[in-house]
Amino acid sequence: MIEARGLTKRYGARIAVDDLSFDVQPGVVTGFLGPNGSGKSTTMRLLLGLDRPNSGVATFDGKPYTSYAQPLREVGALLDAAYLHPTRKARAHLHAVAASNGLSPGRVSEVLAMVGLTEVAEKRTGGFSLGMKQRLGIAAAMLGDPRTLLLDEPANGLDPEGVRWIREFLKHLASQGRTVLVSSHLLSEVALMADRLIVIGKGRLISSTTVDEFVRQFGHSWVRVKSPSMAALSQHLQAMGATLQFEDPLTAHVYGASATDIGTVAASNGMVLHQLADQTGSLEDAYLEVTNQTVEYRGAPK
Amino acid sequence: MIGAVRSEWIKFRTVRANVILIAITLGLPLVLSAVLALVANDSMTDPRDSFGVAVIAPSMVAVYLCGVLGVLGIGQEYRHNTIRVTFAAQPRRSRVLAAKTIVYGTFGLLVGIVTPMLCLVLSSIIMRSRDVPYEADGAALVGVAVLCLLTTLFGFGLGSVMRQPAGAIPVFLLWPLLVESIVGAIFSAVNEDLIRWLPFRSGQQLASFGEDSMGPGVEFSRIVSGVYFGSWTLALVVLGWWLVERRDA
Question: What is the pTM of this model?
Answer without folding.
Answer: 0.82
